[in-house]
Amino acid sequence: MVTAFVGLGANLAAPRAQVLAAMDELDHMAQTRVTGRSSLYRSAPAGYAAQPDFVNAVARIETGMAAEQLLAELQAIERRHGRERSFPNAPRTLDLDLLLYGETRIESPALSVPHPRMHNRAFVLVPLIELAPQALIPGRGPAGDLLPACADQRVERIP
Fold first, then answer.
1. Minimal CA–CA distance to 27: which of 73, 88, 66?
2. CB 89 within 8 A of CB 45
3. Cα–Cα distance for residue pair 107/144, rounded to 1 Å
4. Best CA proximity match to 60, nearest among 20, 6, 21
C-alpha cells in the first residue's frame, strides 16, 4: 500500500456537493481507502479568472494501485461527474489531481508526480498542510515552507 494525496476541486454544478461526492467515491475505489480528508476551502480561480470561485479539498488515501492506474480511476470519476476539458483552466464540475504518490517522482507523458504546480498553489498547499502538517514535496521540500510564496492567493476555509 502507498500513501497518496489527491487534490479535489470544482466550480460548476453545486461544487461543494461535487467535491463531497467525489471524496466518497475515492473511498470506494478498488484497493483504496480514504484515511484523511481536509476541510473544504473556497479559492479564486487560477489562470482563467472569468469564472466562479472553486471549492477545494485534499484527501489522503492508502492504495494498492500503481500511480498510472490510480490516475485512470481519478479521470473516470471526473468523467462520471461531467468533466469536460474545453481549454486550460476552464470551469469544471470536478477536477481530481494526483498530488503525491508516496515519495515517488514520476515524469511521463501521461503523469507528473508530484503535481508540477502544486508547490505554488495555495488552494492545494493549505488543505494539504491541514491534513499532513509535515508533508514533503519531493524535489521542493516541506509544503509549509512553500506556502509563504503563495500569500497573495485567496483561500478561505468553508465553515
1. 73
2. yes
3. 24
4. 6
Measure the CA–CA gap between 92 and 115, rounded to whole angstroms.
18
Choose, from 60, 83, 121, 152, the residue flagged as catalytic: 83
Half-sphere exposure of residue 140: CA atoms within 13 angstroms, side-chain side? 24
Domains of the chain listed by start with CATH number: 2-157 (3.30.70.560)
- Angstrom distance (rounded) from CA 159 to CA 143: 23
Choosing from 37, 42, 60, 95, the catalytic residue is: 95
Q: Does residue 97 carry a catalytic annotation?
A: yes
Q: Are 26 and 61 in contact (CB under 8 A)?
A: yes
Coil, helix or strand at residue 103: coil
Backbone angles phi, psi at 12, to 5 degrees: -130, 155
Tens digit of pLDDT per residue, the chain (159 long)?
Answer: 999 999 999 999 999 999 999 999 999 999 999 999 999 999 998 877 788 999 999 999 999 999 999 999 999 999 999 888 777 777 899 999 999 999 999 999 999 999 999 999 999 999 999 999 999 999 999 999 999 999 999 999 998
Catalytic annotation present for 83: yes
